[in-house]
Amino acid sequence: MAMLAVLMSACGGGGGGAATTIAPPVTLAQSNVVPIVVDAGPVDAGYNVNRLYVDVTICRPASSECQTIDHVLIDTGSIGLRLLSSVVKPALNLSRVTGSAGLPMLTCVQFVDNTFAWGPLVLADIVLGGKAASVVPIQLVADPTIGNAPANCAIGGTAMTTPANLGANGILGLGLFKEDCGTDCVAITHNGSYYTCSNASCTSSVGVKASLAQQLKNPVPLFATDNNGILIDLPALASSSATTLAGSLVFGIGTQPNNQPGTVVALTTSATGYFTTLLGTQSMSNSFLDTGSNGFFFDSPSIRECLDSSLGFYCPATRATVSATLVGANGLRRAVSFSVEDASTMFGDASKTVFSNLAGPMGDASSFDWGLPFFYGRRVFMGIEGQSSILGTGPYYAF
User: Does any domain span residue 320?
Assistant: First the structure.
């Protein structure tokens, strides 16, 4: 399945016909705005569709030694910055996060498409437009100086090691939470997320507890201002597909003229970040919004699945219309309708990287993954846990 959803999180498939580019919906003059784009991805990254990218600058703390890395995937289903070690220049010389024995701390993230990312933690300043978060733990994925991932991280899956198999130069997790594991990893030794080298050469590792300070972090709450959430602002497609799509990532909710919610409905989530999707007779209580997923992913007994190279997506004989209701933990509701088209036909035009009607099976009757197509033509606000705004205190989604 072309989906990179962290248990909980997610990504997709992409490519290049006649150029159809949709312009950004808001001005980028403000310091709390950065441009974002859906396009074919990094050079030599293969065919990618419905992947939302941003440029991220990292710096060695307390120095002017910085690097801007393009085509970092924006993933609202995970937390923290994860960069392929191969794209980070050695001159940055980022300091390692170490455990109690002074050996490097390591982290693992697993995705529902049977892939995983493994690598050490280092400290960096993260700069996004006019905003900065200082001395933040980030992950260097596939660092060659670190031994192989342990079995309970690899889970028999495929390691994300290059732009070609990741479809990006890294992942920027901007989900609803401040840390990627929180109090569970503070209390539990074998938590599946954090490890430390068990010898000086780091050829092996062992699971460890990770304090909040050691964990990967959402950079937004660390900003001095405009730190209570984000707005993802993408225009609607003129048709069901486009070559590229440009939009804006806006920091803060109700803090500046450009991030006022207006008339929206705020759907609060459970403590674990889920709301409920009602679809026919199905009630899917583990539902979430995820820019990292490249389609709508849900189980449907009536929509035909693809049987060819587009396996993992739906291929209905004719366009299918889906109507669902999203229900927050606060009981508020929003009705949403979308269409599903034949993925094989869509992928047949390699000039297109943006598809509004791409969907596939989830393989989990309790979950609905509202991927990137949900965000097309919507201003979607995400309130971060514990951060107050004019829409209330996070975690919530609002649109």
Answer: yes
User: Is the pLDDT confidence value at 138 over 50?
Assistant: yes
**What's the CATH number where 279 sits?**
2.40.70
Same domain, 270 and 150: no
Both tokens of 332, joined, read 């508020």
Range of the domain at 169: 21-222
Confidence of residue 293 (pLDDT cuts 50, 70, 90): very high
pLDDT at residue number 296? 98
Considering the domain boundaries, does residue 288 fall inside one? yes
> pTM for this one?
0.93
Task: Say yes or no: 146 and 260 in one domain.
Answer: no
CA distance 33 to 255: 12
- Bridge-based pairing state of the strands 170-174 and 66-75: parallel
- Total domains, the chain: 2
145 shares a domain with 71 = yes
Band (pLDDT 50/70/90 cuts) for residue 29 is low
Render pLDDT for 161-187 as a digit per residue (tens, 0 to 9). 999 999 999 999 999 999 999 999 999
Question: Phi, psi (5° rounding) for residue 323?
Answer: -120, 130
The two three-digit tokens of residue 372, written as one number: 């990137």
| Residues 102 and 172 grouped into a single domain | yes
| Whether residue 180 is found in the same domain as residue 276 | no
Neighbours of 234 (CB within 10 A): 28
Cα→Cα distances 300→280, 291, 305, 339, Å = 10, 21, 9, 13
Structural domain includes residue 235: no
For the segment 95-115, the average pLDDT, to the nearest whole number, is 92
- Give dist(CA 14, CA 317) in Å, integer: 22
Whether 66 is in a domain gets the answer: yes
Query: What integer is the mean pLDDT of 233-254?
Result: 97
Higher pLDDT, 156 or 54: 54
Pairing of strands 359-360, 296-297: parallel
CATH number of the domain bearing residue 101:
2.40.70.10
SS3 category, 185: helix
Using H for helix, E for strand and C for coil, what is the string for 30-50? CCCEEEEEECCCCCCCCCCCC
pLDDT at position 177: 98
- Check: CB of residue 352 under 8 Å from CB of residue 243: yes
The CA-atom distances, in angstroms, between 12 and each of 101, 163, 276, 327 are 39, 13, 23, 26
Q: What is the pLDDT of residue 84?
A: 98
Of the residues 176, 201, 222, the one at which a domain ends:
222
